[in-house]
Amino acid sequence: MAKLHQIQMTYSSVEDRVLLQIRTIEGQSFLFWLTRRYVGILWRVLAQMLGVEVMCPPGIEPVVECHVSPADPPPDLFAEATRQTVPADQIDNAIPESGGPDSQIIYPLGKNPVLLANIGAKKQSPGDSTLSLHPERGEGIEIVVNIAILRSLCQLLKETAVKAEWHIPLGFTPEVGRGGRAQEGLN
Q1: Could you give the 3-state DSSP secondary structure of residue 177?
Q2: Sign of the CA dihedral running 68, 73, 76, 79
Q3: Which tens digits make up the pLDDT trace of 141-184?
Q4: 118-122 — which CB contacts under 8 Å span 24+ positions?
Q5: How confident is the model at residue 56 (pLDDT cuts 50, 70, 90)?
């Protein structure tokens, strides 16, 4: 199981896909392509992991089988995670940036991005889950994520989809809080 160091998402207009780069504290780099359809499915899985309802992106129905173990975080846990920004120390900064003598990057799946097709999620311990991202055939990655990392991943996904101009409504259904007012899920 990989321990997360850094997640980056960039949109490629030539490919009309999102390039997802996941770096681990062990110095490994995993490169994946995300299609528009996959982004919608991933959004639903992330929402299930957070225990919230999603606004369904139109025309994006999961054909890929998604396995999400039931996890019921305390209701205020998500609300608290959405109110705060993710501290920089949530992701380990043990790997030096590119260019240093200790920054040999290993590409276990190769230097060419792999097209993702399957998603899995499983509750590990209170506050931690495993997110599995795999192509149709072959190796993928399994990473341990907490509420703060899930929230950051959702924010990255949302921002990148906007830059891609995919016009998919990535958001959470507002919950009614105290005083009968709706609370927003993500900023």
Answers
A1: coil
A2: negative
A3: 999 999 999 999 999 999 999 999 998 888 776 553 434 444 44
A4: 118/64, 118/65, 119/41, 119/42, 119/45, 119/64, 119/66, 120/66, 120/67, 120/68, 121/45, 121/48, 121/49, 121/66, 121/67, 121/68, 121/69, 122/67, 122/68, 122/69
A5: low
Q: What's the CA dihedral at 16, 21, 22, 24 to 10 degrees?
A: 170
Q: Which two tokens stand for residue 107?
A: 């590409």
Q: Is pTM, for the whole model, over 0.85?
A: no
C-alpha 82/C-alpha 145 separation (Å) is 15
> Where are the domains positioned within the chain?
4-171
Computed from CA positions of residues 58, 50, 162, 176, in that sequence, does the dihedral angle turn out positive or negative?
positive
